[in-house]
Structure formats: C-alpha cells, structure tokens
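=== Per-residue structure ===
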Amino acid sequence: MFESYTIKDIAKALGLSTSTVSRALNGSYEIGAETKKLVLEYAEKVNYRPNPIALSLKEQKSHSIGVVVCEVANNYFSQAINGIESIAYNRGYHVIITQTHESFDRECTNVKHLLSRHVDGLLVSLSAETTDTSQYQYLHEKGFPIVFFDRVAADVNTHKVIANNFKGSFDAAELLINTGFKKIAHLTSSNNLLITRERFNGFKAALDKHHLDFKPGYLKHCNQGGMIQDEIEFAIKELLSMDEKPEAIFIGSDRLTISCMHILKKLGIKVPDDIAIAGFTNSDVVELFDPPLTVIRQPAFQIGQLATEMLIKTIESKWPVEEFTTEQVETELIARSSSQKPR
C-alpha cells in the first residue's frame, strides 16, 4: 500500500511552513525560485498528489466548468462540446453541460444550478429568447470567469469566440446570386441573437453588391430557433404562397437548415428544381441528402477549444483579468447541387 504524502509532511521534511509549501506548489510569485525548486523536486520524489475533495473545500473550487447551450443534439453544439471537453479534461477540469432548449427561464435556472455546483467558470451560448444578460453582467463584475461563444452577449465585456458570420452569409448569398438567382429569401432564427443580425447583414451586403432589392416579405424569423417544427413549416408555406415566390432560400442556422429540407420534401417541393437551398449547418450527413446540400460550415470543434482555453486561462490567472478579446474564426462554404440552377 502506497503512502499518501500531504503538504504538512513535505513541510516537516524540508523544514518549511505549510503555507510556504502550498504557495510553492501553486507557483506563487511570493516564493523564491530556489525554494520552489526544492519543494517541487521533493513533491515529485514522494509522488505527492493533491486531494481533489480537500482542495475543492479549501479553495471553494470544483475544477469543473459549466456549459450553457441551446441543445446538445444540434450538430454545431455537439461538435463544440467535443472541442470543449478535449481541452478541459487534459487540463484537469470536468465539464457539466446544460441545455436551455431556447428558453430564457431555463437558461437562468441552469446558470443558478451550475453556480450551486461551484463551477470555476462558465462557457455560454445564449438562448434564442435571451434579451436580458444582467445575470452575466453581475457575475462578470464580481470577477467570475465567463466566456461566450457563438451566440454572444454584445453588452458584457468578457472573452468571446465567434465565427465570421457576416462573411459566411455573404459568400453563400453571393454563390446563389452568381448561379443566377435574383429572388432569394432568408429563413433565420430570433432577431434577439447577435449572430442572426450579423448573418442577415452579410446576406443583405451580397444583395447590395449585386444591385438586388431586398424584399422584407422574403425575411422569415423562427423565434424558437427551429425547436418547433410547425413554426418552420408555417414560415416556408408563407414564402411558397407569395405571388412572387422566391427562387432560393438562404437559411441562417443549423437546425433550421436540416428541418427546412425535411419540410420541403414533405410538401412535395423539389430542390433545386422548384427552389434552391443553401444554409448554415455542421451536419456530417448533408452530402448524403437528395440532393446534397450547399452549406456554410463553422469550425465548431476549434471554437469550443478556443473558448475553453480562454476560460481556463482566466480561471487560473493569478491577477484579475481586465483585458478581454473577441476571437473570430473563418467559416467554409461548400457548394453542392442544392444551390444549382435547374436545367
């Protein structure tokens, strides 16, 4: 049976105080380089390992990270969570995942629950209903580490990781325009979300560049972000029943894109013969659709990794973090036959 050494044992063996040993093990700037070296070498020699339960009680830290997303089944978020976990577990943190299902009330409940579990920080992607970000502002002002990713709170000055939503949308809309489509509708999520507005702005910029008018009737918001199938079907039926119905639809989110293809098939609408489609999705099966789907992919795994690295750096900082950055990563447009001009 192996012997478990404590900080007290190391202090006694080296003739140091327990507080000096503790600070040396934690890399404190208050301890000299020689003392640090002495303590670390002895700790390694006796195979010292901190007791995680005692550590948590003493430091009020759980070595866990709370994650708030709309839905784990969403292709984008499942890939982002894989990225989060790949960094967190290698750095000794557990990940606690919560889902809002696009509900602001559930988001608030989830945050309170995660705080009651003494998570060391939060990775947050806002729900489609969220307009009040005061709970995050309050926590941020108290010095609690928060990093937003994908669906960020514009008014909370903390670290953020986003995709280049404007360019992704611009590229997709321009592809449809260059293919020959002039009447292009935009099906998107709640206007509460900053990404919804950024993606619309990219879409509109492509229309403006090619001197095409934007028709307000071609813009359809699904305020539940695709969680309610009837809401999407109603929006699509409205577009298809217009006197001057669109020739193509550019879709602004993962769940909406997949759902739109299913609904068009159900309604007997052929893609791209009756209407062309391009949309944001990270699904790995869209190239197997009939027809294969033109998509804008986000580097979700990388976004999850970047957000986690930023959060852990903030958690482990010895000084209060006062400078914050927004990391932007590029999207990728993959053209397939759903956006082709019918013969």
